[in-house]
Amino acid sequence: MQTYQYDQTNICQPTLAPALATRELEVFYGDKQALFKGSLQFPKHRITALIGASGSGKSTFLRCLNRMNDRVATVKGRILYHDTDINQRQINVYQVRRQISMVFQRPNPFAKSIRENIAFALKQQGLHDRAQLAARVETSLKAAALWDEVKDELDQSALALSGGQQQRLCIARCLALAPDILLLDEPASALDPISTAKIEATLAALRHDYTIIIVTHNMQQASRIADYTAFFHLGHILEYSETEALFTRPQIKVTEDYISGNFG
Ligand SMILES: Nc1ncnc2c1ncn2[C@@H]1O[C@H](COP(=O)(O)OP(=O)(O)OP(=O)(O)O)[C@@H](O)[C@H]1O
């Protein structure tokens, strides 16, 4: 088996303004360290893919970015959002999650109508005007490229939608709350190729208004949609650069072996 040196890294500093940045982020599940000194800068209105073998720490890292690991892990280091370190105890995590929203691997719509999946959180925020609610439902579904498919059945159960439609509904549900950053944890891994293509097209269109960070096992997907890609290995972020450079001119041997299918 090939042995690697992990002290060599190739981490770019994008010149574009960052929407979010981590500084020496470390995650511990009990005694076990799952992430080591992760420092990345995510450019605004760009898509960044996090790739690496199973167990390399991608989801662990992603979940830190909106404080989803709070109850299960100890997270050290800084997460800078608008010059504030949101990894501080006193930060309101619910406000963080309104700005930095998460879409999970398995579509998880509420067992409610399509309309209510979008409107529910808006009503909780105090929006009750029917016309305004209807407008927000429409805009969110359009942004998630689902409107044309569901506009005549908004009062039907979301659970009757296909998996790919449910996932786009979950994206629409996030967008309704006007977040700044979208985190997606393998959002297409449970979907067929046609649904996957629709999700990818949706994300490509959303990058004009949102900063997107996506975990994917699918390297073709990363190369199709991501502007930047970070390669994770055994809890270390070894390489981070523009996607084309990472896939065509990897600087680190482990990255090269991973993307050429020699391990993982
Ligand atoms: N809740 C948890 N409790 C304990 N250990 C965990 C927990 N979640 C993840 N781990 C461990 O942390 C390490 C990184 O896991 P993580 O899920 O972040 O990797 P990943 O790269 O996202 O993997 P995959 O691609 O399989 O989802 C693994 O060793 C995993 O077993």
UniProtKB/TrEMBL annotation:
Alphabetical list of PROSITE patterns matching this protein: ABC_TRANSPORTER_1 (PS00211), ABC_TRANSPORTER_2 (PS50893)
Domain of life: Bacteria
UniProt KW Cell membrane keyword: yes
Classification via InterPro entries: AAA+_ATPase (IPR003593), ABC_transporter-like_ATP-bd (IPR003439), ABC_transporter-like_CS (IPR017871), P-loop_NTPase (IPR027417), PstB-like (IPR005670)
One cellular component term from this protein's GO annotations in UniProt: membrane
ABC transporter domain location: 20-259
Pfam families, per database record: ABC_tran
Any one GO molecular-function label of the UniProt entry: ATP binding
GO process annotations (BP): phosphate ion transmembrane transport
Keywords of the record: ATP-binding, Cell membrane, Membrane, Nucleotide-binding, Phosphate transport, Translocase, Transport
Protein name, per record: ABC superfamily ATP binding cassette transporter ABC protein
Protein species of origin: Loigolactobacillus bifermentans DSM 20003
